[in-house]
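Holo model, fe (ii) ion. Inputs:
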Amino acid sequence: MNGNSYLNCSDDGFRHHLQEEHRQLNEELDELNACCLGQRNCDVQADWNKLRDRVHRLKDNIVHHFREEEEGSCLDEAVARRPTLAAEAREIEQEHPELLAELDGLISWLDQEPAMEATLQNAKQRLNSFADNLRRHEWREDALIRRGVGAFGVDD
Ligand SMILES: [Fe+2]
Ligand SMILES: [Fe+2]
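Output:
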């Protein structure tokens, strides 16, 4: 975490920006899940390409999002106000490289596998598991910020 950032949680604009980013990531995950995977009469190659493009785009967005969070210090602000949250905040931030490594593994697998119905099903399972981990991470983050700096979102 970088407490000297020009972005911080005292700025409501940034907190809303963070909330909006979480909403958009969630939407992207839903779209990935809804992608035509293994349905009858679908073009497996076209679906595979669409899925791969979306996962690459998701990776770019997540890298950008994590960087903003690390520089934006929302977690720092929560810890500054409630120091007992320090260990949990560190744990949450350590999940960033773990999540990126999981996504990188999925991307190289998608780049190498042949486009077949069975691999599409497998891809869907792996994506769902990644989506669960990312959603759990964002949920923990929102909860920690709420506990540290007050209500986040509708209660602001
Ligand atoms: Fe995060
Ligand atoms: Fe986040």
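The pocket of fe (ii) ion (ligand 2) is lined by residues 22, 65, 69, 138, 141 (CB under 6 Å). The chain has one domain: 12-149.
Archived with the compound record.
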